[in-house]
Amino acid sequence: MYDDTLPDDVQPRKRRKGIYILPNLFTLAALFGGFYSVVMAMNARFDLAALGVFAAMILDSLDGRVARMTNTQSAFGEQMDSLSDMVSFGAAPALIAYEWSLKGLGRWGWIAAFVYCACAALRLARFNVNTGVVDKRWFQGLPSPAAAALVAGFIWLVNEWGKRGGEVLYLSWTQITWVTFAFTLYAGLSMVTNAPFYSFKDVQMKKSVPFVVIVLIALGIAVINIHPPTVLFGLFVAYGLSGYVVYAWRKAKGQPASVISTSTEEPDERGLHN
Questions:
Q1: First and final CA of the chain: distance in angstroms?
Q2: pLDDT, tens digit, for every residue of 9-28?
Q3: Residue 81, CB half-sphere, CA atoms under 13 Å: how many?
Q4: Residue range 26-36: average pLDDT?
Q5: How confident is the model at residue 263 (pLDDT cuts 50, 70, 90)?
Q6: Which CATH number fits domain 19-196+207-253: 1.20.120.1760, 3.40.50.150, 3.60.110.10, 3.40.50.300?
Q7: Fewer beta carbons within 10 angstroms: which end of the chain, N or C?
């Protein structure tokens, strides 16, 4: 924008609209993670399929941050990120779950997979249109990467424990199939609820922290490495329940449970469709 109070040689530069390579490389890598998961599921490598979803989650969390750090945000990047999320956290987990066990349930299996996929699309669309009116500290409904982690994490966990022989997690395969059915529906429907899930967006990575925080982070990494499938799945189960706990607590206290219009501050994470 031109400022007539400033000389021509010090006018602020207007940021050129275009496509920026660096943040979109992370988005494309996340998209590849989702595509890789589907291919591995088609080849019955469900452990690698689950890992592809988790890899996509990590990459998806980086693209927006890289764009802001390098000042390369763009409308193209926002749309690309949303489409990538639909593949990696919408279609891929539904197809993996279906190929892994849900197809054994016949019609009920593909209905559960479709409900998850449809809810992921609805959740992403709602996030896009509500970006400016939702309190940035909270997600409205379970974020799609966390929903994908619930489905893929369960598959990863059962596959890891299944290598030890005998019954898997003390459940028969028929029981595991119905548990997968329940997890798929729970994750899908949780994405379109109004339950508030903490977004961690108010955690400032640039601020200095006490030394003990670094120690706790190191301990957390060590705990995850004890058995990654078990620990990660447990963490996402806890997060997947946390929104309903917060919702019930707010209702019990007589506080507003909706995250809509609870903040006039523009969210910092515009363009990140989580």
A1: 32
A2: 555 454 455 567 777 888 99
A3: 32
A4: 94
A5: very low
A6: 1.20.120.1760
A7: N
In this predicted model, what pLDDT tens digit does every residue of 99-152 receive, in sequence order? Answer: 999 999 999 999 999 999 999 999 999 888 877 677 778 888 999 999 999 999
Placement of tokens 């409904």 in the chain: 141
The tens digit of pLDDT for each residue in 59-69 reads: 988 877 777 77
Q: Classify the phi-psi angles of 65: left when phi > 0, otherwise alpha if psi is within -120 to 50, otherwise beta.
A: alpha
Beta bridge partners of 196: 140
